[in-house]
Amino acid sequence: MRKTALSILLAVSLFFGTTAVWAAPKANLQSDQAFDNKIVKRIKVENIYNHIAELSKSPRVAGTEGEEAAVDYIKDQFESYGYKTELQAFDIYSYTEPSLIELSVDGMTFESGPNGFTYGVNGEVTNELVYVGLGASDDFEGKDVEGKIALIQRGTYSFAEKVSNAAAEGASAVIIYNNTDGVINGTLGEPNDEYVPSLAITQAQGLALKERLDKGETVTATLKVEGAKTDQATSHNVVATKEATQKSTDQLVLVGAHHDSVEGAPGANDDASGTATVLELARVFANAPTDTDIRFVTFGAEENGLLGSYEFVERMTEEDYDRTVGMFQMDMVGSKDAGPLIMYTADGEKNIVTDLGASAGARLSETGEATPYGWEGRSDHVPFSEIGLPAALFIHAPVEPWYHSPEDTLEKISLDKLKEVSNIVGAAVYQVARPDTPALEKAKVAPKKVDYNFEERELE
Fold this sequence. Notes:
Layout: H1 2-23, H2 28-40, H3 45-55, H4 65-80, E1 85-96, E2 100-105, E3 123-131, E4 149-153, H5 159-168, E5 173-177, E6 198-201, H6 203-214, E7 220-226, E8 229-242, E9 251-258, H7 268-285, E10 292-299, H8 307-315, H9 318-323, E11 324-330, E12 341-345, H10 352-364, E13 373-375, H11 382-386, E14 391-396, H12 415-433
Parallel strand pairs: 3-4, 4-5, 5-6, 9-10, 9-11, 11-14, 12-13
Antiparallel strand pairs: 1-8, 2-7, 3-7, 8-10, 12-14
Helix pairs in contact: 2-12, 3-7, 3-12, 7-12, 10-12
């Protein structure tokens, strides 16, 4: 029912609204920049930085006291801006890290690592290594992994897919090596009785093992994991709604980020940076005149498999679904060592969110260059896209080398990158929400025509 309803809305929007996006006269540029300033001039990047400093004092693993403290902080901030907030509680699984992880290989020592995966299982295995590429189903063709340990490279597929594919082919354990420098701190998303014991090692360690296998050497490994435990817990979404000051369009815009982090990581960039930017935009919009409702959301349990955003989508009313213009998701928007900004959609296609983001980026950029877009399905924009709502992820890519590690700390945050994203998302949202802009399917005032390109850019 929701997809049918939205297809009608999008058809109208594409016929009128998107035409307006591309047909807007150049004379609108100066006017749009003036409106942008009503938001961007009020954004204080120091506020964002200070929120990151507070949130990243300790890890915020979903279902733990660390996440609960973050939820309380976010709720208090929203309420200090005058918002009534809603806490959406939902059940998840919590994970206790193994008390013992061991890996030994003939003729090799491991100075760093190995690491386990969240929701990994206990076990002890001794057997030969078999290299199976990226661990896709096709990579196992012609490979005898029955009872053996699968050696897999990180990339393209989730850790859970790699482990599940190996287990389905009869492997008794899995070792995944990184595709870049640094260690892996990963998750399998959720518990699964079909998983086999799995560990992560560095890129150098994995390539050394692969080189020995490529030479035809038989390599035997012993892998041991003890003390891992999965329990039920509770996570939360934090929701604050900016009600329109002029009810003329009955539109709704969603602005979100996830507030949880992985085990052992302070998560300054992932994703205290996105959460802090949501908080600052909520402050700026609190007293801004709008004809559109804006809902600011921080999601819990993103690192567990986008659980918070799926919960939010499940709870959306039919009315809110039908009136939602789009969803702006910010994830990892502050690292000085990450790549340039990109907008990712779950299907790799443009939508109204990327149109608005590209136009805002072009207006605010000193060079006039629009923000590019690409395809990526690994953040909280995905559940919205799956029910037919336009959504996009704003992120810097490739991500920094210490992604999902204890090195994701405050001193690696860039004020310039925080400013870039907060300005673009703030201006893009205001393009919809400002009082002189009617509902987008009837828009006369629309983003200036810009050309923005698809980029084949890997997130990692």
